[in-house]
Design goal:
Blueprint (H helix, E strand, L loop, with lengths): L23 E3 L8 E8 L4 H15 L4 E8 L4 H14 L3 E5 L1 H10 L5 E4 L21 E4 L5 H12 L3 E7 L3 H16 L3 E7 L5 H8 L5 E4 L3 H4 L2 H11 L3 E3 L12 E5 L1 H16 L4 H4 L1 E2 L7 E6 H7 L5 H5 L3 E4 L2 E4 L2
Parallel strand pairs: 2-3, 2-4, 4-5, 5-6, 6-12, 7-8, 7-9, 9-10, 10-11, 13-14
Antiparallel strand pairs: 1-3, 11-13, 14-15
Helix pairs in contact: 1-9, 2-3, 4-5, 6-8
Length: 338
């Protein structure tokens, strides 16, 4: 499928932006052993990205080497992401980790002499983090993609809700948001479904964007878009008030909202896999030889259904789909299936 390449604009001048002190820092015990300093830059705090961050830290702290973490939160601001990258460069971190596209892009722009590891980048090529997927180009960048099987996900959703028009909110300044929006548009066109998109630039605009399109759609789709997901309760609220089913691909943030279907990664697992990339670099592997890692094991994805929401909306979910679900919400209870 043809993908639209969309690169985020970056700031060349940061001026006097101030970076807060680390939100958390793990200090190793005294000794002569090499201490690997790891800077982690996270775009924003929400359940999925927090789970990635925790997964990276837990995995690396379980290994045989000693690490020290400097955790920073960009609070959704690109300028802050660049300021954090400059701080990490000044601090001479051994390895830096960017969680979500703008955070990783800022690190890649500023830090050239030390390894940059990305976590949860939907399309590393569109984000400009890799030159191609052949692993031939010299680079200091490697990491993990969270690209979902979007076509399979949406066509499964279509089989349940049978929409005539699909709505989607996306972040126009995030490469992964734009890429997934274009992919969703093409999938809708292939299935004869009208597509209505609403672009936002920050999380405060998400609810208004949902309200702006809710009367023109009969199903809502939220992709792996960090800014939108950080405000997912407001999308759920607008959808339920209008009687519109919601497909949220971030299972981590789905537990306490009125979604119909959720299908995506366990993001703690994405964090541990990102931590494994850091470990490979610590053990001497060249980032060029690691490249971009994509998940292709179905066991790494989780399918969730909320039968309470389905009942409210008068939607029936086929038993064969329910049998393959990892989590079912029924009568307000979360049921985890083997």
């Amino acid at each position: 499928m043809k993908r639209t390449i969309a690169l985020l604009a970056t700031f060349l001048l940061v001026g006097s932006y101030l970076v807060a002190q680390p939100t958390s820092e793990t200090l190793p015990s005294e000794g002569t052993e090499k201490i690997y300093t790891i800077g982690i830059s996270k775009l924003v705090s929400h359940p999925a990205l927090d789970a990635i961050e925790q997964g990276v830290m837990d995995y690396l702290e379980s290994r045989e080497f000693t690490v020290s973490f400097d955790n920073q939160n960009c609070n959704g601001e690109i300028a802050t992401a660049i300021a954090i990258a400059q701080k990490f460069k000044s601090d001479d971190k051994d390895i830096v980790v960017g969680i979500a596209t703008p955070a990783a892009q800022a690190l890649a722009q500023i830090i050239k002499e030390k390894p940059v590891v990305f976590g949860a980048i939907t399309d590393p090529l569109a984000a400009g983090l890799v030159a191609d997927y052949t692993r031939k180009e010299e680079t200091n960048i490697a990491g993990v993609s969270d690209l979902n099987p979007i076509e399979l996900q949406l066509e499964t959703y279509f089989s349940i809700v049978k929409p005539k028009t699909l709505g989607m909110i996306y972040t126009s300044s995030e490469a992964n948001g734009v890429v997934q929006m274009e992919m969703a548009r093409e999938i809708c066109e292939a299935n004869g479904i009208k597509f209505v998109a609403a672009a936002i630039s920050n999380s405060s605009e998400v609810k208004m964007a949902a309200q702006s399109i809710i009367d023109r759609i009969d199903a809502m789709y939220v992709a792996i878009d960090n800014t939108v997901v950080s405000a997912i309760p407001s999308v759920s609220e607008v959808c339920m008030k209008a009687g519109i089913p919601l497909f949220n691909t971030d299972t981590t943030s789905s537990e306490n909202i009125d979604f119909l279907m959720s299908w995506g990664f366990n993001y703690y697992t994405v964090g541990t896999e990102t931590g494994k990339v850091v470990e490979r670099i610590i053990k001497g592997e060249n980032p060029k030889d690691i490249g971009a890692i994509f998940f292709d094991d179905p066991a790494q994805f989780e399918l969730w259904f909320n039968l309470d929401t389905a009942k409210k909306l008068g939607i029936t979910i086929d038993e064969s789909l329910l049998a393959n679900a990892k989590v079912i919400i029924k009568d307000g209870q979360k049921q985890v299936q083997p």
